[in-house]
Amino acid sequence: MPRLLPLPAKCSAFTLVEIMIVVVIIGLLAVMGIPALEKSRQNTYASRIANNMRVFSGAFETHALENGSWAPDGQGNNLPATVAPYLQDTAWYEEPIPGGWYDWEYDREGIKASISLAYERDFPEVFLKVDRILDDGNLGTGTFIKTGGRYFYILER
User: Fold this and answer.
1) How far apart, in whole angstroms, are the C-alpha atoms of residue 7 and residue 95?
2) What whole-number distance in Å separates Cα of residue 107 and Cα of residue 30?
């Protein structure tokens, strides 16, 4: 039977071994990249939370200076009406971490005035980084502490 198509003089293609080596190399790169991505995500959360705490504390302190006293306690991240205008252009109502929210605390846990961060799932590495940014790196002391299942940024003791 006559051949319809001529055979190429040299056939070039990847062998199964070469393809497997490439897949293994890509897998190793992915394994090395995932921890770096997680660390980057934690640093982003920590920076965002620390910056927000500074902005919020400025808003609450401005309110206290203009009104002569701290705002009354809020429920969840629902603020007293007198404070809302001070925080209107901030990230108060945004999730700082997945499942987290900010709350204004007045006379709670032995602290006169603070901003707390409540959460459904704890991110201890993130909050330790926040403490290093805002305070002393120890969540048991200073102005950023963990107590009663929440994290507090203390404005006045």
Assistant:
1) 64
2) 48
